[in-house]
Amino acid sequence: MKAIIVKHPGGAEQLQVAEQPKPEIKSDELLINVKAAAVNRTDILSREGQSAYMTNPILGIEVAGVVEASGNGTEDKNGMRVTGLVNSGGYAEYAVMPADRAMEIPEHLSFEEAVAIPEVFLTAYQTLFWLGNLSKDETVLIHAGGSGVGTAAIQLAKQLTNAKVITTAGSEEKLQFCRSLGADVGINYKEQHFDVEVMKATNNQGVDLVLDFIGASYWEKNLNSINVDGRWILIGVLGGAVIENVNLMDIMSKRIKLIGTLLTPRSDDYKAALSKDFETKAMPLFEREQLKPVIDHVFSPGEAQQAHEHMESNKNIGKIVLKMDD
Amino acid sequence: MKAIIVKHPGGAEQLQVAEQPKPEIKSDELLINVKAAAVNRTDILSREGQSAYMTNPILGIEVAGVVEASGNGTEDKNGMRVTGLVNSGGYAEYAVMPADRAMEIPEHLSFEEAVAIPEVFLTAYQTLFWLGNLSKDETVLIHAGGSGVGTAAIQLAKQLTNAKVITTAGSEEKLQFCRSLGADVGINYKEQHFDVEVMKATNNQGVDLVLDFIGASYWEKNLNSINVDGRWILIGVLGGAVIENVNLMDIMSKRIKLIGTLLTPRSDDYKAALSKDFETKAMPLFEREQLKPVIDHVFSPGEAQQAHEHMESNKNIGKIVLKMDD
Questions:
Q1: Which residues of chain A make contact with B241, given a CB cutoff of 8 A?
Q2: Which of A288, A290, A316, B285 lies 20 to 30 Å from B42 when distance is taken between CA atoms?
Q3: ipTM strictly over 0.85?
């Protein structure tokens, strides 16, 4: 089968289309005829050889496609259109998916739209609700509002709780798009001090939940922005990982819960339970078009290098997709 | 009435016995004829003028005594022997206690024993169970095992969950005492690297929960000692508050939950709910002598200065008590 592999750990130029053996499934797995795969930051880390859990020369952790074969220990789902997380090997004609993670694709969604759901919506869902316990009378600060997880989190927060959503982004175009998804307050972090704006927007209370993809460079301002008993979910370090001075009294006196998380290295059981909960509570909202996948650009397999470079330039709003049956 | 007040913010020499007006109660409060008060670190901060929530010249946040009057909006508890948290004014002949925090004292306990319960056992209970979600197959690392909260936490962890308890302390005497309370592993932090010993004692898995009273000076070793998905409750900074160079990737890759907390500034409702839950689940274990208050030394009111100096010297094992009816 055709697949996109990494020749040697390194830059985007290391990606190439190559012939690979068609994978075999175990009894609790599905073989997916992949129609679309999506690009994630974790793929870039894997490409660079920085990921400890990369076990497959084929990149990619989420796919949408048609079930071609179902393991003999699982329900026969042959022919079903599904999307979901795979452990690796997503950028390929065929991929293996644990059966208990497959989510059926709502009828009106294309494969390119469906593949824009799993990683970012599951991450946002896990972060907002499983870890952040967001409830409807609360306020959430979502950084990188134009990113894949950001656009998913804005929609989920509004549609599942009607919490007040404050978001940051680096351009007016991104902020307008965030508002169209339901954000109540948009802050341009290049032109304003986001902590000052957050305090204005919350009657000086601060927010109950912070979704932090940025890390070090936002540390002080996040501390200033969070309310007493606030939850602060750390899911990325785009602004650096190392903070020079942390005062633990700040964390104690505000009774902050700082929670680190990464979705990709979690266990199969965790991913299955998260997928199931999401499928029950959030997938119906895609059917009713209250939630929508956000696609920035669709590339062909031969354009994988451009797809990675596009993500690395941070200019995308929403997901970058590879249409595998091109 | 007789009370111990702070003349001016400063050292232990600022404490003096003085005549003060007998307090008046509101409809939801009890007037307690105080038989014993306990000394806490927060009293030292208040004495030094470092506490933002000190509103009373009389120190003290926990008492045991007899109810002398019950507010007209609450059940008549006159004559009942009770112990519990007060908002201030504990070092006195009479103190005011919100009625919904009063816990009845088991018959066989003296007032000096009973006053050794509220602050440290409620803090330990809140930290282990409300914030730390400790369960029976897990392992907890309790620092400062000889401290008031440490001795309470060791007992509660063993008696309510049978989790594996690893504790640190600075002398063999303290460690022996910790073992007598139920600790499975005792580590002398002055003679051993506690993180190395923790890994030995947990089959290189690390602990599921850390009770951290120490802060900065233990930061790296706590990071080394904690398991993936571990909870880390920060309740004191005896080893400093400021850490240089925190790498947020450590928190993300181990999916750590770092939770800051302080009990004293929490709301009345929180303290009432915590006291109620503790009274239901843990007080019966004092009646059956599965839990025991740990008293280091009982001082008379005229010895308040020595009592504070004794706490500041860090030599106590368990609680320092003032017997107020001396």
A1: 247-249
A2: B285
A3: yes
